[in-house]
Amino acid sequence: MHPQLEAERFHSCLDFINALDKCHQKEYYKRIFGLCNNEKDALNKCLKEASLNNKKRAVIESRIKRADVEKRWKKIEEEEYGEDAILKTILDRQYAKKKQESDNDANSK
Asked: Residue 50 belongs to what H/E stretch?
């Protein structure tokens, strides 16, 4: 039996893992002739379902973390530039004007 199947993340499939392991240990000919295939198919289905559930949970957790990080960034930006980043908007406009003026001066020479 694969050691990764005994992991905590597949705890929901423990019954299927034990059933397949028991079938494999009973009689060797059952294993050879594929008489344990029903147990194996059930285990594969359970593992796939468990894996999908783990992926869904991970996506949800990452979205929650991302939203929290973005809230923190917005709070830091508001502390630095004021509400709705008004100061940043003004500074960006002034920077754009200066850059345009310097470009115009360079082009006129």
From this structure: helix 37-81
Query: For each of the chain's 109 residues, which pLDDT tens digit applies?
Result: 455 666 566 788 888 888 888 888 887 787 788 888 998 999 999 989 988 998 999 999 999 999 999 999 988 888 877 777 777 788 888 999 988 888 887 777 6
Q: Whats the size of the chain, residue-wise?
A: 109
Q: What is the value of pTM for the model shown?
A: 0.59
For the beta carbon of residue 36, count every other beta carbon within 10 angstroms.
20
Which structure tokens are listed for 29? 């000919």
Burial 77-87 (b: 16+ CB within 10 A, else e): eeeeeeeeeee
Q: Is 2 left (phi over 0), alpha (psi -120 to 50) or beta?
A: beta
